[in-house]
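Recall that a protein's primary structure is simply its ordered list of amino acids. Everything else, from secondary elements to tertiary packing, is in principle encoded there. The following example makes that idea concrete.
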Amino acid sequence: MDAVNPSTSPTARESGGSSAQGVLLVVAAAFVTQTGAAIAVSLFDHVGATGAVFLRLFIAAVVLCAVVRPSPAGLTRHTIGVVLAFGVALGGMNLLIYQAIARLPLGIAVTIELLGPLALSVVLSRKWSGVLWAALALAGVVLLSGVGPGSGVPDLAGVFFAMAAAAMWAVYILMSRQAGRSFPGTQGLAWAMVMGAVLAAPFGIASGGAALLEPRVLLVGLAVALLSSALPYALELAALRRSAAETFSILVSLAPAVAALVGWVILGQALGPAEIIGMGLVILAGAAAVRTGRLPSTGPTPPGT
């Protein structure tokens, strides 16, 4: 999501009650986000993965602009460049991760996508321990890619799309910080959401066609947009006010486990022992990198998965 400086959240001296509330809010946001992603899968047969992305981004852009009311006066030669880059990162991340979700179990796709912020955290930490966490995460991805006893053989194109989405997530984090410096409040995110919808439009319309206008499809698209963008964003903003930034980021790194659980319950996607171990390695590496490294000022997670 848009850049919200974690330094505004409580420090290590946070109260126990606020801390517990923050934990619950982050966990709730994760379940809401991954439920939205699982529901989006139901659209794939009707409008395709790119059609689902366009519908979600378009509706989210309309809702966000109605709430934020971004001012055109804020668009200058400099800020337009920020919006373009931010929008490309946002739209590209969504297009890529939905392609991954169409080919891989939800938990595996989200786990690989987590490599983006993990790699950024390792780079920013400039510590030798970061190499260890990167190696641990790489071992986890190898297992998730079908190497090792008990592993299935996932779609390699899906793995590629998830890794590309991870790279776009890292770019998104950097651009969200720049947008936070260029626009007040969440106006930068609103403009980026519009740009992301514009970017996805040609692909989504070509994929979904007239089916994008069917009432049922629009209703599901609205639910996906609210569950995957608006509601988790509000929950995570509330969590940031109650939790230390480090606590928040460690909890966010648990998203793959939540995605795996939601994928199993809603989509019937069971994972084998090797996949579960691989997921655990990536989660451990992400939490350790945040704990021992330098925390990127990311704010709430992006409106992807």
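The chain has twelve helices and no strands. The first helix runs from residue 16 to 41.
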